[in-house]
Amino acid sequence: MGYAQIRSTIGLGNSEAVVLRFTSGDDIDDWKLQYEVAQAASEQALRYDGPYKEDYAGKGDNLCALQRYEEAIAAFDQAIQLDPSYTHAYSRKVSAISLKKQSKQAR
User: Fold this and answer.
1) Residue 38 CB neighbours (<10 A)
2) Which of 9, 58, 90, 107 has a C-alpha 20 to 30 A away from that of 96?
3) CA distance 107 to 92
4) Closest CA to 86 of 13, 11, 12, 10
5) Residue 33, pLDDT score
6) HSE of 89 in the Cβ direction (CA atoms, 13 Å)?
7) Across all residues in the chain, what is the average pLDDT?
């Protein structure tokens, strides 16, 4: 099954990023691909817009969804470093640590 490429602009934190979205059939049904595209958009936003806590938190959320917990924790740490009072990053970091432990126990 082939993928159709769709160019779109999405908002991330304090920036907008042009990303490529891929779809198969009538709808995007590959959740992992959606998060990989969102992760690429997060990276692009950080590269072009500078360091914003929301962009690092979004990056962490995407990495969690992709089960890349170590990287997610590092992204949340970067958000916390930018704003030590950013509670979203703390709560998501705790979630990432918990998911990482659960993942190790399941193996």
Assistant:
1) 22
2) 9
3) 23
4) 13
5) 73
6) 23
7) 74
